[in-house]
Design brief:
Elements (H helix, E strand, L loop, with lengths): L1 H46 L5 H19 L4 H16 L1 H10 L15 H49 L1
């Protein structure tokens, strides 16, 4: 029995060493694989002049929209309207990119609007999609609450009807 336990202990240690090596190799490969993406993101982030008034206004718009959504979370009509507005904003992002790319000198210090729309996707469409997801999750949560209330009312009604039948 003691020899079996010793063999089991050796096998477990070998297995743990193997797993440790695998995790170490995987994390190293992941770091190496993600490094270009991290470098690109940092380059993108540092290439932007965050003190430009229109960028501050854009970020303030996103924050204000998110706060409006949070404070109006109980009003499904407002939420639905804001959801549609956010999705329409994403829909027109390509047209906005073209328009803003041809008129950037009137409001920006440099042309951020390339033909692929990376900048506008990152700073306009991305936040609007995140905000849309927040609204969608809130709508689903509200729907679940309504379904629970409806089922409780149905069960109370059935219980009352059964009680009235017995009397």
């Amino acid at each position: 029995m003691s020899q079996f336990m010793e063999e089991l202990k050796v096998a477990m240690n070998e297995h743990m060493d193997l797993m440790s090596d695998l995790v170490e190799k995987f994390s190293g490969e992941l770091r190496v694989g993600l490094q270009p993406a991290v470098d690109n993101f940092l380059g993108f982030f540092h290439a932007i002049d965050w003190k430009e008034p229109w960028l501050i206004g854009l970020l303030s718009f996103h924050v204000a929209l998110l706060l409006t959504i949070i404070f109006s979370r109980k009003n499904i009509n407002v939420q639905t309207s804001l959801f549609l507005v956010a999705l329409v904003g994403v829909y027109f992002a390509e047209s906005m990119n073209t328009f803003l790319g041809s008129n950037w000198k009137s409001f920006a210090g440099q042309n951020y609007f390339d033909k692929h729309g990376v900048f506008l996707s990152a700073l306009w469409s991305g936040p609007l999609l995140v905000i849309s997801i927040v609204i969608l999750v809130n709508m689903l949560f509200s729907l679940c609450q309504v379904m629970v209330k409806w089922k409780r009312a149905e069960l109370k009604h059935k219980a009352r009807a059964a009680r009235n039948k017995q009397e």
